[in-house]
Amino acid sequence: MKKSRKPMTPSRRRAWIRFTIALFFAVLFVCFALFASSFARYDPLKTDYDNMLAAPSSRYWFGTDQLGRDIFSRILYGGKTSLLIAFLVTGIVATVGIFIGTAAGFLGGVFDGILMRFCDMLMAFPGSIFTIAMVSFIGTGIPNLILAMSLTSWTGFARISRSLVLSIKNNVYIEQARMGGASDWKILFVYIIPNVLPSLLVNIFQSIGGKLLTISGLSLLGLGSPPPTPEWGFMLSEGKNFMYQAPWMLVFPGLVILINVVIFNLLSDSIQDLMNPKESTW
Amino acid sequence: MLKQVKDRLISLIFILIGLSILTYGLTFLLPSDPVEIMIDTMGLPHDPETIEKLNEQYGFDKSFWVQYKTWLVGIFHGDFGWSVKYNQPVNEALWRKLPNTVKLSCSAFLMMILVSFPLGILSAVYKNKAADYIIRFMSFIGVSIPSFWFGMMIIYLFGVELKWLPVAGFTTWKGLIMPTLTLGITNSAYYIRRIRAVMVEQMSEEYISGLRSKGISKRRIIFRHVLPNSLLAVITMLGMSFGGMLGGTMIVETIFGWNGIGSAAMGAITARDYKLVQGYVLWMGFIYVIVNLIVDISYQFIDPRIRRGMASK
Questions:
Q1: Domain final residue pick, B90, B106, B138
Q2: How many domains does chain A divide into?
Q3: Complex ipTM, two decimals?
């Protein structure tokens, strides 16, 4: 990691510590999801009719569900679905949004005007409602979910990156690059986008956390990945029906969603603090 | 200021046109032919004659803009189509359930304000003290917690374990408590953070040290100077959050079995009652846009800088 030249104030050091811890856990959970098969104790789809709705024990760490499936293993495999979608959607909206936003900010003029009016229009609607409606029209399933979530949330990135570009556009080095004969595209890709990316990390990590919440919400409503694929939100919706007999079916998947969202929000927050200590929210 | 209001009203018209095109465009995302779906849901036979008749009756064979125009004219006459699930006009089905959703959103909104303002102010005033750390920790968890899970956990806690509140049959005021808590508390976490951030920023402004050096008490500075200046920024956010709350009602209503338009729309989604879903999106979008317009306009009345700025022109 690049060594900071700024003096290490106590608050800066704390931000570094938070960042390191959050990054460690983020990597850990991603590894859990990626290598779910080596961490899982059972096949997530394997039913055990002798142990239906069994309480957490040394055999089933997080208990079992209504079909006797191991909740611990299902959570590990569920991470594959939930985190994959969250990363994919964020990747798509960030790429599209940053590209469009920087281009609009850099080129200005009519293109910028039309684009920003379009963004204004999209942002004038409650996005979550539109996502839900869209999924219900194009049909459920992971590709459709990704499509609907991406279509409704790239505007945020477009706006932020546009304003970032506007703030650096008139710097001397851009001027010099232009005088050196660099084309618009070269300036955009070599000088502008790399410069705005670090600030956008804050939004990227925040978006991952937010998307995790959206995905599990949609799955909970039955609009996410189709069963029996394990998915955190869907596990919750199943757990709701067995609240009396098996509260662990509710507790663990929810806790895992919460922890993951906390980690990504923490990453976002600590980066914000590291880059801009004055506007610290912490 | 009038010009500002006029500009907002003009952009409102464009936004509403955009909203209606997007909502109507949803129909074209359907994986199968709308005629086929209609035949399926109405239980009619799949013969060319029926298809032709329906095409003629509903104009499915016309171009997008012709269909859109017909649809829009219908909307202006209050005709949102026929809800297959509720077997009545979409408008009536939604209208009947609207009061419940309004009741829920308003009480949650009120709760959000009652929770977030005192805590946000407290957190900013006692910056880096114990109270601040506790509030910050709680609100950080609050923004990360899935609202539906929070709802389920309080159903479990108050309904199943403690048996204080009913788990099902939400008809009395008691039934309103848990959905309100869910929606209100999860939304207020975000505000606590915003209010604190805005106030802390205000408190680092130079005029504050000026006031302090004049010997004005901290309490007076906070309530007379910092708070009014911070409120303006917060009001805009409140408008935005109303939309989030409307969206949130869908999940919360579904979990709690609250008989509002959110759960009606959810039921419509499962029953493939597309007209009702469309109507729901349009209604919600409309409410959201109007609320934001009101916030925007009131913002201009409240902020003396804008008020005077316009008067001097």
A1: B90
A2: 1
A3: 0.83
